[in-house]
Here is the input.
Amino acid sequence: KSCSRSNTCKVATKGDSQTQNIARAVFNTFVENTGNTPHLIINNIHRSKMDPNRVIKDAAQGDTKAIEVYEAYHGTIAQAETSFGGKPGLLIDFHGQGHKKNSTEIGYYIFGKKSLGALFEYSGYRAVPSPRQPAPGRDLYYRGGYTTQVHGSRDGGLVDAIQLEFPGEIRIDGGKGLRKQFSSKLAKILEEYYSSNY
Here is the structure.
C-alpha cells in the first residue's frame, strides 16, 4: 500500500447512503418525462475501498484492484463525454452529506433567479447557493470534488460538471416516500436546468 506507518493517509469511509437509489429514480423519471436517456454511471465499490472522487493516490491507496476500478470508473465517464459529439453537456455528480441544514449543497457559486439553486428552492427544497442563501457563510459546504474538477469545464471543454450533496434529512430521515418525491422533483429540476442552459 502507498501509506506507510509514518505517513497516515486520511480517507473518507462513510458511504453516501441512498444516493444510488436517488440517482436511479431520477434517471428513470428523466427518461419517462423527456424520452431522452442520459448516461448513468454508478460506483458500486464502497468508498472505504476506493473513492473515485479523490486523486488516485488517496482514492485507491496503492491497491491494484482499486486502481483498476478507479481507472474504469473515470474511463467510463470520459467515454460518455465523447458520445456528446463535440456538443455541450452536463455531468451531475450525486453525493450525500450530513451537515444537518436540510439543504442540498450545489458545488458552484452561481445563485441567480435561473440558477440550479433557485430551481431547488422554487420546488420546495432548500439549496446553497441559491437566491435565499447565495453563499454557505460559516456553514460546512462541499464545493465539488475530483470528479467535477477533472471532467468539468473549469479548465476548458464543453462538459460542465456539478456536484450535488443531498442532505441526510432527505436521503435517510425522510424515508422512502420523501426520497421518491424528491427524486421525482429533482428529475424535473434537472430537465428544466438542462433545457434552459444546453
About this structure: The beta strands are 89-97, 104-106, 127-128, 159-167. Helices lie at 19-34, 56-60, 64-82, 116-122, 146-151, 168-173, 175-197.
